[in-house]
Amino acid sequence: MSLDSYPEGPENARVLGVFGQYNVMPELSLSVPYNPFKVDIFQAAWTILESFRDYGGLDDFKDFFQTFCSRHPEDRPTAAEALAAFESFVSAMKPRERRYLVWNKEKLFHPRIIQRSLVRICPLLNCFL
User: Fold this and answer.
1) pLDDT tens across 42-101, in order?
2) What pTM does this model have?
3) Rounded to an integer, what distance in angstroms lies between the CA atom of residue 119 and that of residue 129?
4) Cα–Cα distances in Å, from 70 out to 7, 14, 46, 67, 122?
5) Which residues pair with 46 in a beta bridge?
6) Could you tell me the CA-to-CA distances from 64 to 41, 67, 77, 127 in Å, in that order?
7) Which one of 7, 18, 56, 65 is most buried, counting C-beta atoms within 10 A?
């Protein structure tokens, strides 16, 4: 899809159809026109949230992206607004928060526990961890 295909601009663009990667988007319709760009925002956020399902340490990001999955398209941001919100969200994080570890929930131990255990077992590893 190209912006050139929508001379009325992305805010006023309307299409019909039920084609999409996820069938959970509330506005997909064969009879009621909807904004495809608002669907894109929903779909991108939904994809990110689905990929986060198996990982811990991403709760703040989950809450952030959940706001892009509003059932009401008019409540979703435009792509430019989403980018600005993400930049603001990340820049508001403390530097140490940006270094939090992300781990696969299927693993037995949280990586920080493993790291601390290794340091206790072999203090020389501390300079590498």
Assistant:
1) 988 998 898 888 877 788 888 889 989 998 999 999 989 999 999 999 889 888 777 776
2) 0.71
3) 8
4) 26, 18, 10, 6, 49
5) none
6) 13, 6, 12, 35
7) 65
Q: Distance between CA atoms of 16 and 93, rounded to whole angstroms?
A: 40
CA distance 74 to 34: 10
CA distance 61 to 86: 9
**Looking at per-residue confidence, does 105 or 11 come out higher?**
11
Nearest-Å Rg of the Cα atoms of the chain is 20
Token pair recorded at residue 124: 């020389």
Q: Using CA atoms, how far apart are residues 28 and 51, in angstroms rounded to an integer?
A: 23
From the CB of residue 28, how many other CB atoms can be counted at a distance below 10 Å?
19
